[in-house]
Amino acid sequence: MQGKNCNLTMLTDFYELTMAGGYLKEGMGDREVVFDMFFREIPDGGGFAIAAGLEQLIDYMSNLHFDERDLEYLRSKGIFSEDFLAYLRDFKFCCDVWSVPEGTPIFPGEPIVVVRGPVIQAQLVETMTLLTINHQSLIATKANRVCRAAEGRPIMEFGSRRAQNSDAAILGARAAYIGGCVATACTLTDRDFGVPAIGTMAHSWVQVFDSEYEAFKKYAETYPHACTLLVDTYNVLKSGVPNAIRVFDEVLKPMGIRPQGVRIDSGDIAYLSKRAREMLDAAGYPDCKIVASNSLDEYLIRDLILQGAKLDSFGVGENLITAKSDPVFGGVYKLAAVERDGVLAPAIKISETVGKITTPGFKTVYRFFENASGKAMADLVTLYDEPAPDTTKPCVIFDPLSVWKKKELTGVTAKRLLVPVFEKGKCVYECPKLSDVKKYCTEQIGTLWDEVLRFENPHKYYVDLSEKLWNTKNELLHQQRW
User: Fold this and answer.
1) Is residue 287 in some structural domain?
2) Is residue 130 part of a domain?
3) What pLDDT is attached to residue 2?
4) How many domains does the chain have?
5) By the 8 A CB rule, do 115 and 96 touch?
6) CATH number for the domain including 241?
7) What per-residue confidence (pLDDT) applies to 478?
8) Sorting pLDDT into bands at 50, 70 and 90, what band is 1?
9) What is the DSSP string of 247-302?
Protein backbone atom coordinates (compact mmCIF):
# COMPACT_ATOMS: atom_id res chain seq x y z
CA MET A 1 0.00 0.00 0.00
CA GLN A 2 1.20 3.52 -0.79
CA GLY A 3 2.15 5.48 2.31
CA LYS A 4 4.84 7.54 3.96
CA ASN A 5 8.39 6.25 3.29
CA CYS A 6 7.11 3.89 0.60
CA ASN A 7 9.50 3.89 -2.37
CA LEU A 8 7.45 4.02 -5.56
CA THR A 9 10.19 5.53 -7.73
CA MET A 10 9.96 2.67 -10.23
CA LEU A 11 6.21 3.11 -10.66
CA THR A 12 6.81 4.81 -13.98
CA ASP A 13 5.92 4.21 -17.57
CA PHE A 14 9.03 2.61 -19.09
CA TYR A 15 9.38 5.39 -21.62
CA GLU A 16 10.17 7.82 -18.82
CA LEU A 17 13.34 5.80 -18.21
CA THR A 18 14.28 5.34 -21.86
CA MET A 19 13.88 9.08 -22.44
CA ALA A 20 15.91 9.81 -19.31
CA GLY A 21 18.74 7.63 -20.55
CA GLY A 22 18.61 9.39 -23.90
CA TYR A 23 18.61 12.87 -22.34
CA LEU A 24 21.67 11.99 -20.28
CA LYS A 25 23.53 10.59 -23.32
CA GLU A 26 22.80 13.76 -25.27
CA GLY A 27 24.03 15.97 -22.43
CA MET A 28 20.50 17.30 -21.84
CA GLY A 29 19.77 15.75 -18.45
CA ASP A 30 19.93 19.07 -16.60
CA ARG A 31 18.01 21.06 -19.20
CA GLU A 32 15.26 22.91 -17.37
CA VAL A 33 11.66 22.27 -18.38
CA VAL A 34 8.13 22.89 -17.12
CA PHE A 35 5.34 20.31 -17.19
CA ASP A 36 1.65 20.98 -16.49
CA MET A 37 -0.91 18.49 -15.26
CA PHE A 38 -4.43 19.42 -16.33
CA PHE A 39 -7.60 17.66 -17.46
CA ARG A 40 -9.87 18.10 -20.45
CA GLU A 41 -13.35 16.86 -19.49
CA ILE A 42 -15.34 16.81 -16.25
CA PRO A 43 -16.59 13.34 -15.28
CA ASP A 44 -20.31 12.64 -15.70
CA GLY A 45 -20.76 15.84 -17.68
CA GLY A 46 -20.61 17.82 -14.44
CA GLY A 47 -19.89 21.49 -13.95
CA PHE A 48 -16.66 21.10 -11.95
CA ALA A 49 -14.24 18.59 -10.45
CA ILE A 50 -12.47 18.51 -7.08
CA ALA A 51 -8.69 18.31 -6.69
CA ALA A 52 -7.46 15.57 -4.36
CA GLY A 53 -4.40 13.42 -3.80
CA LEU A 54 -1.76 16.08 -3.12
CA GLU A 55 -0.70 14.62 0.23
CA GLN A 56 0.11 11.27 -1.39
CA LEU A 57 1.95 13.00 -4.24
CA ILE A 58 4.10 14.80 -1.67
CA ASP A 59 4.86 11.48 0.06
CA TYR A 60 5.96 10.04 -3.28
CA MET A 61 8.14 12.95 -4.33
CA SER A 62 9.74 13.16 -0.87
CA ASN A 63 10.96 9.58 -1.12
CA LEU A 64 12.29 9.40 -4.69
CA HIS A 65 15.41 7.22 -4.91
CA PHE A 66 16.72 4.19 -6.79
CA ASP A 67 17.95 1.26 -4.71
CA GLU A 68 20.23 -1.57 -5.81
CA ARG A 69 17.31 -3.80 -6.73
CA ASP A 70 16.04 -1.11 -9.09
CA LEU A 71 19.46 -0.67 -10.66
CA GLU A 72 19.99 -4.40 -11.15
CA TYR A 73 16.62 -4.68 -12.83
CA LEU A 74 17.42 -1.82 -15.20
CA ARG A 75 20.84 -3.32 -15.94
CA SER A 76 19.15 -6.61 -16.81
CA LYS A 77 17.17 -4.91 -19.58
CA GLY A 78 20.42 -4.58 -21.52
CA ILE A 79 19.71 -1.13 -22.95
CA PHE A 80 20.84 1.32 -20.27
CA SER A 81 24.41 2.59 -19.97
CA GLU A 82 26.46 2.34 -16.79
CA ASP A 83 26.70 6.14 -16.82
CA PHE A 84 22.90 6.31 -16.64
CA LEU A 85 22.74 3.74 -13.84
CA ALA A 86 25.36 5.72 -11.93
CA TYR A 87 23.23 8.85 -12.40
CA LEU A 88 20.22 7.03 -10.96
CA ARG A 89 22.25 5.70 -8.01
CA ASP A 90 22.99 9.29 -6.97
CA PHE A 91 19.53 10.58 -7.92
CA LYS A 92 18.23 13.47 -5.80
CA PHE A 93 14.93 15.19 -6.55
CA CYS A 94 15.44 18.94 -6.96
CA CYS A 95 12.37 20.19 -8.83
CA ASP A 96 10.06 23.07 -7.97
CA VAL A 97 6.42 22.01 -7.72
CA TRP A 98 3.20 24.01 -7.43
CA SER A 99 -0.31 22.63 -6.95
CA VAL A 100 -3.84 23.71 -6.17
CA PRO A 101 -4.72 22.70 -2.59
CA GLU A 102 -6.77 19.57 -2.08
CA GLY A 103 -10.49 20.26 -2.02
CA THR A 104 -10.30 23.06 -4.60
CA PRO A 105 -12.93 23.04 -7.38
CA ILE A 106 -11.06 22.72 -10.68
CA PHE A 107 -11.97 23.10 -14.34
CA PRO A 108 -10.72 21.82 -17.69
CA GLY A 109 -7.63 23.31 -19.26
CA GLU A 110 -6.10 24.96 -16.20
CA PRO A 111 -2.91 23.66 -14.52
CA ILE A 112 -3.57 21.58 -11.40
CA VAL A 113 0.07 20.65 -10.77
CA VAL A 114 3.12 22.39 -12.26
CA VAL A 115 6.59 20.80 -12.15
CA ARG A 116 9.72 22.76 -13.04
CA GLY A 117 13.22 21.32 -13.01
CA PRO A 118 15.74 19.11 -14.86
CA VAL A 119 14.03 17.27 -17.69
CA ILE A 120 14.96 13.79 -16.43
CA GLN A 121 13.38 14.48 -13.05
CA ALA A 122 10.32 16.35 -14.27
CA GLN A 123 9.61 13.59 -16.79
CA LEU A 124 10.16 10.79 -14.25
CA VAL A 125 7.29 11.89 -11.99
CA GLU A 126 4.70 11.91 -14.78
CA THR A 127 3.04 8.58 -14.09
CA MET A 128 2.69 8.93 -10.34
CA THR A 129 1.53 12.54 -10.59
CA LEU A 130 -1.24 11.46 -12.93
CA LEU A 131 -2.07 8.26 -11.05
CA THR A 132 -2.31 9.97 -7.68
CA ILE A 133 -4.19 13.11 -8.65
CA ASN A 134 -6.42 11.44 -11.27
CA HIS A 135 -7.69 8.73 -8.94
CA GLN A 136 -8.48 10.79 -5.87
CA SER A 137 -9.86 13.72 -7.86
CA LEU A 138 -12.20 11.31 -9.65
CA ILE A 139 -13.53 9.82 -6.40
CA ALA A 140 -13.80 13.16 -4.59
CA THR A 141 -15.76 14.54 -7.54
CA LYS A 142 -18.12 11.55 -7.65
CA ALA A 143 -18.59 11.61 -3.88
CA ASN A 144 -19.57 15.26 -4.00
CA ARG A 145 -22.20 14.58 -6.65
CA VAL A 146 -23.68 11.86 -4.46
CA CYS A 147 -23.60 14.10 -1.38
CA ARG A 148 -25.27 16.98 -3.18
CA ALA A 149 -28.02 14.64 -4.39
CA ALA A 150 -28.75 13.70 -0.77
CA GLU A 151 -29.63 17.33 0.08
CA GLY A 152 -27.88 17.37 3.43
CA ARG A 153 -28.52 13.77 4.44
CA PRO A 154 -25.27 12.02 5.44
CA ILE A 155 -23.51 9.80 2.90
CA MET A 156 -21.35 6.91 4.12
CA GLU A 157 -18.76 5.36 1.78
CA PHE A 158 -19.34 1.56 1.67
CA GLY A 159 -17.24 0.52 -1.32
CA SER A 160 -14.04 -1.18 -0.11
CA ARG A 161 -14.99 -4.66 -1.31
CA ARG A 162 -15.77 -3.38 -4.81
CA ALA A 163 -12.69 -1.19 -5.25
CA GLN A 164 -10.09 -2.32 -7.77
CA ASN A 165 -7.38 -2.92 -5.12
CA SER A 166 -6.36 -2.00 -1.59
CA ASP A 167 -5.06 1.48 -2.44
CA ALA A 168 -8.23 2.22 -4.38
CA ALA A 169 -10.25 1.30 -1.29
CA ILE A 170 -8.12 3.12 1.27
CA LEU A 171 -7.31 6.28 -0.67
CA GLY A 172 -10.70 6.24 -2.38
CA ALA A 173 -12.35 6.46 1.03
CA ARG A 174 -10.01 9.33 1.88
CA ALA A 175 -11.02 11.16 -1.32
CA ALA A 176 -14.71 10.44 -0.71
CA TYR A 177 -14.39 12.12 2.69
CA ILE A 178 -12.89 15.22 1.06
CA GLY A 179 -15.81 15.23 -1.38
CA GLY A 180 -18.36 15.26 1.42
CA CYS A 181 -18.93 11.76 2.82
CA VAL A 182 -19.18 11.67 6.60
CA ALA A 183 -17.77 8.20 7.20
CA THR A 184 -16.41 5.03 5.60
CA ALA A 185 -16.66 1.29 6.09
CA CYS A 186 -12.89 1.05 5.54
CA THR A 187 -11.22 0.58 8.92
CA LEU A 188 -7.71 1.26 7.66
CA THR A 189 -8.71 4.67 6.31
CA ASP A 190 -9.88 5.58 9.81
CA ARG A 191 -6.65 4.35 11.40
CA ASP A 192 -4.36 6.12 8.93
CA PHE A 193 -6.33 9.22 7.97
CA GLY A 194 -8.97 9.72 10.67
CA VAL A 195 -12.00 9.23 8.43
CA PRO A 196 -14.63 7.85 10.85
CA ALA A 197 -15.15 4.12 10.30
CA ILE A 198 -18.67 2.81 10.90
CA GLY A 199 -20.52 -0.46 10.49
CA THR A 200 -22.92 -2.74 12.24
CA MET A 201 -23.80 -6.12 10.77
CA ALA A 202 -24.15 -8.09 7.56
CA HIS A 203 -26.93 -10.45 6.59
CA SER A 204 -24.65 -13.29 7.67
CA TRP A 205 -24.95 -12.14 11.31
CA VAL A 206 -28.70 -12.54 11.13
CA GLN A 207 -28.44 -15.90 9.34
CA VAL A 208 -25.99 -17.38 11.87
CA PHE A 209 -28.51 -17.18 14.72
CA ASP A 210 -31.55 -19.41 15.04
CA SER A 211 -33.89 -16.49 14.45
CA GLU A 212 -33.84 -12.89 13.30
CA TYR A 213 -35.13 -11.82 16.71
CA GLU A 214 -32.26 -13.57 18.51
CA ALA A 215 -29.71 -12.01 16.14
CA PHE A 216 -31.09 -8.52 16.81
CA LYS A 217 -31.30 -9.13 20.57
CA LYS A 218 -27.67 -10.31 20.86
CA TYR A 219 -26.43 -7.38 18.82
CA ALA A 220 -28.36 -4.88 20.92
CA GLU A 221 -26.99 -6.44 24.10
CA THR A 222 -23.44 -6.27 22.74
CA TYR A 223 -23.60 -2.74 21.28
CA PRO A 224 -26.50 -0.97 23.02
CA HIS A 225 -25.17 2.54 22.29
CA ALA A 226 -24.56 1.81 18.59
CA CYS A 227 -27.55 -0.30 17.69
CA THR A 228 -28.47 -0.14 14.01
CA LEU A 229 -30.22 -3.29 12.79
CA LEU A 230 -30.28 -4.67 9.24
CA VAL A 231 -33.95 -5.45 8.69
CA ASP A 232 -34.16 -6.95 5.17
CA THR A 233 -32.60 -10.40 5.57
CA TYR A 234 -36.02 -12.07 5.38
CA ASN A 235 -38.90 -9.59 5.14
CA VAL A 236 -38.61 -5.93 6.03
CA LEU A 237 -42.21 -5.24 7.07
CA LYS A 238 -43.39 -8.65 8.29
CA SER A 239 -40.35 -9.57 10.40
CA GLY A 240 -37.42 -7.14 10.18
CA VAL A 241 -38.97 -3.96 11.53
CA PRO A 242 -41.30 -5.76 14.02
CA ASN A 243 -38.34 -7.73 15.43
CA ALA A 244 -36.27 -4.56 15.64
CA ILE A 245 -39.05 -2.79 17.58
CA ARG A 246 -39.40 -5.76 19.92
CA VAL A 247 -35.66 -5.67 20.68
CA PHE A 248 -35.72 -1.91 21.17
CA ASP A 249 -38.55 -2.39 23.70
CA GLU A 250 -37.04 -5.35 25.53
CA VAL A 251 -33.32 -4.54 25.50
CA LEU A 252 -32.69 -0.84 24.95
CA LYS A 253 -35.69 0.82 26.58
CA PRO A 254 -35.03 -0.73 30.03
CA MET A 255 -31.47 0.65 29.79
CA GLY A 256 -32.75 4.12 28.95
CA ILE A 257 -31.01 3.95 25.55
CA ARG A 258 -32.53 5.02 22.26
CA PRO A 259 -31.89 2.94 19.12
CA GLN A 260 -29.61 4.37 16.43
CA GLY A 261 -31.46 3.07 13.41
CA VAL A 262 -32.48 0.38 10.97
CA ARG A 263 -30.94 -0.28 7.56
CA ILE A 264 -32.70 -1.41 4.38
CA ASP A 265 -30.45 -2.98 1.73
CA SER A 266 -32.91 -4.38 -0.84
CA GLY A 267 -36.39 -4.14 -2.26
CA ASP A 268 -38.47 -1.08 -3.09
CA ILE A 269 -36.62 1.21 -0.72
CA ALA A 270 -38.96 4.18 -1.17
CA TYR A 271 -42.05 2.15 -0.29
CA LEU A 272 -40.37 0.15 2.47
CA SER A 273 -38.93 3.23 4.13
CA LYS A 274 -42.34 4.91 4.28
CA ARG A 275 -43.99 1.90 5.90
CA ALA A 276 -41.02 1.37 8.24
CA ARG A 277 -41.24 5.01 9.32
CA GLU A 278 -44.91 4.60 10.16
CA MET A 279 -44.20 1.48 12.21
CA LEU A 280 -41.29 3.00 14.11
CA ASP A 281 -43.22 6.20 14.85
CA ALA A 282 -46.23 4.26 16.08
CA ALA A 283 -43.96 2.23 18.38
CA GLY A 284 -42.54 5.38 19.96
CA TYR A 285 -39.29 5.60 18.01
CA PRO A 286 -39.62 8.67 15.78
CA ASP A 287 -35.93 9.38 16.39
CA CYS A 288 -34.82 5.99 15.04
CA LYS A 289 -33.04 6.67 11.75
CA ILE A 290 -33.64 4.75 8.54
CA VAL A 291 -30.53 4.07 6.46
CA ALA A 292 -30.59 2.91 2.83
CA SER A 293 -27.92 1.08 0.86
CA ASN A 294 -27.98 -1.24 -2.23
CA SER A 295 -26.07 -0.02 -5.33
CA LEU A 296 -27.08 3.62 -4.92
CA ASP A 297 -25.79 6.58 -6.90
CA GLU A 298 -26.65 10.27 -7.13
CA TYR A 299 -29.57 9.70 -9.50
CA LEU A 300 -31.18 6.93 -7.45
CA ILE A 301 -30.78 8.98 -4.28
CA ARG A 302 -32.34 12.00 -5.96
CA ASP A 303 -35.24 9.87 -7.18
CA LEU A 304 -35.80 8.34 -3.74
CA ILE A 305 -36.03 11.81 -2.23
CA LEU A 306 -38.40 12.97 -4.97
CA GLN A 307 -40.58 9.92 -4.23
CA GLY A 308 -40.85 10.97 -0.60
CA ALA A 309 -38.77 8.14 0.81
CA LYS A 310 -38.36 8.42 4.58
CA LEU A 311 -34.59 8.06 4.64
CA ASP A 312 -32.14 9.78 6.95
CA SER A 313 -28.82 8.68 5.44
CA PHE A 314 -27.31 6.54 2.70
CA GLY A 315 -24.51 4.01 2.36
CA VAL A 316 -23.04 4.17 -1.14
CA GLY A 317 -20.59 1.54 -2.36
CA GLU A 318 -19.55 0.38 -5.82
CA ASN A 319 -20.94 3.31 -7.80
CA LEU A 320 -18.95 5.74 -5.68
CA ILE A 321 -15.64 3.96 -5.02
CA THR A 322 -15.23 3.06 -8.70
CA ALA A 323 -16.95 6.16 -10.11
CA LYS A 324 -18.75 3.52 -12.15
CA SER A 325 -20.69 5.85 -14.44
CA ASP A 326 -17.53 7.60 -15.70
CA PRO A 327 -14.49 5.85 -14.23
CA VAL A 328 -11.61 7.75 -15.84
CA PHE A 329 -10.38 11.17 -14.80
CA GLY A 330 -8.57 12.23 -17.94
CA GLY A 331 -5.73 14.25 -16.47
CA VAL A 332 -2.68 14.64 -18.72
CA TYR A 333 0.90 15.77 -18.12
CA LYS A 334 2.32 17.91 -20.90
CA LEU A 335 5.50 19.84 -21.58
CA ALA A 336 4.82 23.58 -21.39
CA ALA A 337 8.30 25.17 -21.50
CA VAL A 338 11.90 24.15 -22.18
CA GLU A 339 15.22 25.89 -21.68
CA ARG A 340 16.74 27.13 -24.94
CA ASP A 341 19.91 29.21 -24.98
CA GLY A 342 19.58 29.88 -21.28
CA VAL A 343 15.99 31.09 -21.54
CA LEU A 344 12.87 29.20 -20.51
CA ALA A 345 10.91 29.19 -23.78
CA PRO A 346 7.23 28.21 -24.15
CA ALA A 347 6.51 24.89 -25.86
CA ILE A 348 3.30 23.74 -27.49
CA LYS A 349 1.78 20.45 -28.66
CA ILE A 350 -0.32 20.85 -31.79
CA SER A 351 -3.09 18.47 -32.81
CA GLU A 352 -5.77 18.30 -35.47
CA THR A 353 -8.09 17.82 -32.49
CA VAL A 354 -8.46 21.37 -31.21
CA GLY A 355 -9.07 20.25 -27.62
CA LYS A 356 -5.67 18.54 -27.56
CA ILE A 357 -3.66 21.63 -28.45
CA THR A 358 -1.81 22.59 -25.27
CA THR A 359 -1.39 26.03 -23.75
CA PRO A 360 2.33 26.86 -23.72
CA GLY A 361 4.51 28.52 -21.13
CA PHE A 362 5.29 28.56 -17.43
CA LYS A 363 1.90 29.54 -16.03
CA THR A 364 -0.19 30.21 -12.97
CA VAL A 365 -3.95 30.50 -12.35
CA TYR A 366 -6.11 33.15 -10.68
CA ARG A 367 -9.73 32.84 -9.58
CA PHE A 368 -11.96 35.91 -9.55
CA PHE A 369 -14.45 36.15 -6.67
CA GLU A 370 -17.30 38.65 -6.70
CA ASN A 371 -16.94 40.84 -3.63
CA ALA A 372 -20.67 41.28 -3.07
CA SER A 373 -21.65 37.59 -3.18
CA GLY A 374 -18.34 35.78 -2.62
CA LYS A 375 -19.10 33.69 -5.72
CA ALA A 376 -16.43 32.49 -8.16
CA MET A 377 -16.84 34.31 -11.46
CA ALA A 378 -14.06 32.96 -13.68
CA ASP A 379 -10.49 31.64 -13.72
CA LEU A 380 -7.66 33.31 -15.57
CA VAL A 381 -4.54 31.45 -16.69
CA THR A 382 -1.53 33.76 -17.06
CA LEU A 383 2.18 33.49 -17.66
CA TYR A 384 3.95 33.14 -14.34
CA ASP A 385 5.88 36.38 -14.62
CA GLU A 386 2.84 38.49 -15.45
CA PRO A 387 1.66 40.87 -12.73
CA ALA A 388 -1.42 39.78 -10.81
CA PRO A 389 -4.70 41.05 -12.26
CA ASP A 390 -5.40 44.62 -11.16
CA THR A 391 -8.88 44.35 -9.68
CA THR A 392 -9.04 48.05 -8.75
CA LYS A 393 -10.26 48.62 -12.29
CA PRO A 394 -12.46 46.56 -14.63
CA CYS A 395 -10.83 43.30 -15.76
CA VAL A 396 -11.70 42.20 -19.27
CA ILE A 397 -11.48 38.47 -19.95
CA PHE A 398 -12.25 36.63 -23.18
CA ASP A 399 -12.91 33.10 -24.38
CA PRO A 400 -9.63 31.69 -25.77
CA LEU A 401 -11.45 29.88 -28.60
CA SER A 402 -14.15 32.46 -29.34
CA VAL A 403 -12.19 35.63 -28.69
CA TRP A 404 -15.11 37.92 -29.52
CA LYS A 405 -16.86 36.64 -26.37
CA LYS A 406 -15.68 39.06 -23.69
CA LYS A 407 -16.73 39.75 -20.14
CA GLU A 408 -15.90 42.73 -17.96
CA LEU A 409 -15.41 41.92 -14.29
CA THR A 410 -15.84 44.64 -11.68
CA GLY A 411 -16.00 44.51 -7.92
CA VAL A 412 -13.95 41.32 -7.74
CA THR A 413 -10.92 39.93 -5.90
CA ALA A 414 -8.35 37.72 -7.62
CA LYS A 415 -6.81 34.79 -5.73
CA ARG A 416 -3.85 32.77 -7.01
CA LEU A 417 -4.75 29.08 -6.94
CA LEU A 418 -1.37 27.37 -7.36
CA VAL A 419 0.69 27.28 -4.17
CA PRO A 420 4.37 26.26 -3.76
CA VAL A 421 4.82 22.64 -2.71
CA PHE A 422 8.51 21.90 -3.39
CA GLU A 423 11.40 24.32 -3.81
CA LYS A 424 14.56 22.73 -5.25
CA GLY A 425 13.28 19.35 -4.09
CA LYS A 426 12.53 20.43 -0.52
CA CYS A 427 8.90 20.26 0.59
CA VAL A 428 7.72 23.70 1.69
CA TYR A 429 4.02 22.85 2.01
CA GLU A 430 2.43 21.65 5.22
CA CYS A 431 -0.51 19.38 4.50
CA PRO A 432 -3.58 20.41 6.49
CA LYS A 433 -5.56 17.95 8.56
CA LEU A 434 -7.96 15.96 6.44
CA SER A 435 -10.92 17.38 8.36
CA ASP A 436 -9.74 20.86 7.39
CA VAL A 437 -9.40 19.80 3.74
CA LYS A 438 -12.99 18.56 3.85
CA LYS A 439 -14.17 21.83 5.40
CA TYR A 440 -12.23 23.86 2.82
CA CYS A 441 -13.78 21.80 0.01
CA THR A 442 -17.28 22.47 1.31
CA GLU A 443 -16.55 26.20 1.60
CA GLN A 444 -15.10 26.41 -1.91
CA ILE A 445 -18.01 24.56 -3.50
CA GLY A 446 -20.20 27.08 -1.72
CA THR A 447 -18.58 29.78 -3.89
CA LEU A 448 -19.92 28.18 -7.09
CA TRP A 449 -23.17 29.38 -8.61
CA ASP A 450 -26.14 27.00 -8.56
CA GLU A 451 -26.00 26.87 -12.35
CA VAL A 452 -22.51 25.30 -12.16
CA LEU A 453 -23.75 22.73 -9.64
CA ARG A 454 -26.48 21.32 -11.89
CA PHE A 455 -26.20 17.62 -12.77
CA GLU A 456 -27.67 18.07 -16.25
CA ASN A 457 -26.35 20.72 -18.64
CA PRO A 458 -24.45 22.75 -16.04
CA HIS A 459 -23.29 26.24 -16.87
CA LYS A 460 -19.80 26.21 -18.40
CA TYR A 461 -17.48 27.98 -15.99
CA TYR A 462 -15.11 30.44 -17.65
CA VAL A 463 -11.41 29.49 -17.83
CA ASP A 464 -9.77 32.20 -19.90
CA LEU A 465 -6.24 33.09 -20.94
CA SER A 466 -4.54 36.41 -20.37
CA GLU A 467 -3.96 38.44 -23.52
CA LYS A 468 -0.20 37.91 -23.26
CA LEU A 469 -0.61 34.14 -22.91
CA TRP A 470 -3.12 33.99 -25.74
CA ASN A 471 -0.73 35.91 -28.00
CA THR A 472 2.09 33.54 -27.05
CA LYS A 473 -0.04 30.53 -27.95
CA ASN A 474 -1.22 32.09 -31.19
CA GLU A 475 2.34 32.91 -32.26
CA LEU A 476 3.53 29.37 -31.63
CA LEU A 477 0.62 27.96 -33.60
CA HIS A 478 1.95 29.92 -36.57
CA GLN A 479 5.55 28.84 -36.00
CA GLN A 480 5.11 25.12 -36.43
CA ARG A 481 8.25 22.99 -36.30
CA TRP A 482 8.11 20.18 -38.81
Assistant:
1) yes
2) no
3) 54
4) 1
5) yes
6) 3.20.20.70
7) 87
8) low
9) HIIIIIHHHT----EEEE-SS-HHHHHHHHHHHHHHTT-TT-EEEE-SS--HHHHH
